[in-house]
């Protein structure tokens, strides 16, 4: 979907969009649209309620267009969430009427956010309404080229481009999460990262098993042992900030999770989704590079499968980490935290970051506790969480902070090793976060457990069944905001 600014409607258009303040008389900023409305419906005292959408056909510029009129009340709680929801509905209606050439009237009549902010949100939502994953279907969904002409000052063109690129990054993450494990192996994930880096403008280095062994990544390689497929330690680097230390992103990259010897009892058909943290950081890197953000960023993915084999790591074994700490493996199905522990240590010791943000769909505990509303975060530095929380209105991605009381840390202790990877105690999400927080050394660290947010089982206006791309917008906007802090 291509967005461009225009000074007036030039037509013909398949559809035109106008969002009005709820209760306000229908009027248009574009002169041609206003003239067409006055000529044919000017006597109608129509007003629209909040989120009410009307569709009608209107003669415009020598043809006919499908006009979508929507009302919006900026006084509702969480108006930006409501605004995104409205645009998801409008995008779904555009998809239904197969509009390829669309005119968007000005968005300059609302005071809760600037015109630039509102346009960025609209451009980040509309492309997602056309997203589909049909790689393995013989009958593909039709693909159309879309052009959206926006009545706005030409100086806002970069805002439209940013919104579109962010939507593209979310769709990249969705593609990765939706693909099957037979195709998206660790090696294929590394190959796609190289291709994306070449396309968007970041470098990619991939360490093989021998290089990981030389670095002492005993936890990552223990998890990888049960698979016939070679592990891939993927390091993506973007340099936009001169000599400053990078922000480090770490994403869980388990391309398939059987549970290992602690074999899962059900739901294994969904375990191709277990690399959603990796998908989020990869998508974020694409958006960061596309928009040339003024920060250095390094993103790390320890990619492997957790499979069952005669060489699989065992429940009850002890393994060394790259940090030197030893870990007692109580549960081989708590594998993601093992791979990411070595990835965190790699970031600390090889990349010297200013801070580390680690993300993963990690525990059933967070899924069960927070449901489909928010993800959970745990941090050693409250300022990190405050910065994430401040972004929730602009991203629509919500987070709750988990506690880190000393009593929880005591549960990680075991006489067998320095740490237990899956202690008993019931607080699985907190314990997983505290386990990972044992490896950041003195670098400010934030752990995010996406919980149930990275995939859905039913379709909605701008979301198909499957991967959501959750986390991409948060990581992008976090890095963008940190660029202004530099």
UniProtKB/TrEMBL annotation:
Belongs to the peptidase M17 family. Keywords: Aminopeptidase, Hydrolase, Protease. GO terms for biological process: proteolysis. The keyword Coiled coil does not apply. One of its GO terms (molecular function) is metalloaminopeptidase activity. It comes from the Bacteria. CDD domains: Peptidase_M17. GO terms for cellular component: cytoplasm. It comes from Lawsonibacter hominis. Transmembrane segments: none annotated. Residues 331-338 form the Cytosol aminopeptidase domain. It holds the Pfam family Peptidase_M17. The keyword Transferase does not apply. Presumably involved in the processing and regular turnover of intracellular proteins. Catalyzes the removal of unsubstituted N-terminal amino acids from various peptides. This is Probable cytosol aminopeptidase. SUPFAM superfamilies: Macro domain-like, Zn-dependent exopeptidases. Gene3D superfamilies: Leucine Aminopeptidase, subunit E, domain 1 (3.40.220.10), Zn peptidases (3.40.630.10).
């Amino acid at each position: 979907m291509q967005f461009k600014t225009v000074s007036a409607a030039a037509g013909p258009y398949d559809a035109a969009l106008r969002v009005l303040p709820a209760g306000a008389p229908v009027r248009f900023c574009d002169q041609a649209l206003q003239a067409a409305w006055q000529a044919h419906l000017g006597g109608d005292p129509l007003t629209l309620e909040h989120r009410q959408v009307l569709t009608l056909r209107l003669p415009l510029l020598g043809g006919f267009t499908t006009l979508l009129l929507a009302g919006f009340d900026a006084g509702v709680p969480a108006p930006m969430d409501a605004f995104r929801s409205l645009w998801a509905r409008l995008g779904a209606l555009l998809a239904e009427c197969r509009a390829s050439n669309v005119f968007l009237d000005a968005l300059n009549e609302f005071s809760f956010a600037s015109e630039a902010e509102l346009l960025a949100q609209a451009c980040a939502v509309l492309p997602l309404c056309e997203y589909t994953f049909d790689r393995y279907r013989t009958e593909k969904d039709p693909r159309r080229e879309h052009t959206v002409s926006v009545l706005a000052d030409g100086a806002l063109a970069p805002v439209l481009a940013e919104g579109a690129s962010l939507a593209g990054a979310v769709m990249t993450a969705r593609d990765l999460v939706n693909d099957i494990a037979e195709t998206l192996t660790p090696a294929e994930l590394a190959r796609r990262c190289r291709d994306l880096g070449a396309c968007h403008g970041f470098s990619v280095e991939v360490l093989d098993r021998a290089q990981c062994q030389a670095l002492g990544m005993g936890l990552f390689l223990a998890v990888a042992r049960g698979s016939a497929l070679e592990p891939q330690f993927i390091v993506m680097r973007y340099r936009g900030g001169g000599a400053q230390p990078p922000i480090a992103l770490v994403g869980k990259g388990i391309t398939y999770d059987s549970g290992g010897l602690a074999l899962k009892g059900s739901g294994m058909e969904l375990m191709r989704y277990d690399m959603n943290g990796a998908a989020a950081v990869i998508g974020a890197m694409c958006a960061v590079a596309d928009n040339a953000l003024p920060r250095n960023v390094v993103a790390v993915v320890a990619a492997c499968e957790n499979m069952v084999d005669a060489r699989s790591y065992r429940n009850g074994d002890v393994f060394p980490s790259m940090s030197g700490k030893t870990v007692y493996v109580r549960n081989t199905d708590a594998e993601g935290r093992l791979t990411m522990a070595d990835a965190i240590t790699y970031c600390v010791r090889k990349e010297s970051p200013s801070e580390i943000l680690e993300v993963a769909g990690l525990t059933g505990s967070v899924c069960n506790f927070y449901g489909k509303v928010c993800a959970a975060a745990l941090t050693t530095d409250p300022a990190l969480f405050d910065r994430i929380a401040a972004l929730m209105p602009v991203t629509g991605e919500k987070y709750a902070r988990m506690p880190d009381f000393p009593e929880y840390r005591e549960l990680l202790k075991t006489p067998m090793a320095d740490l237990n990877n899956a202690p008993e105690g019931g607080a699985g999400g907190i314990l997983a976060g505290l386990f990972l927080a044992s490896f950041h050394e003195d670098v400010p660290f934030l752990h995010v457990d996406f919980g149930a947010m990275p995939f859905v089982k039913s379709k909605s206006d701008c979301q198909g069944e499957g991967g959501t791309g959750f986390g991409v917008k948060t990581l992008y906007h976090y890095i963008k905001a940190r660029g202004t802090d530099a």
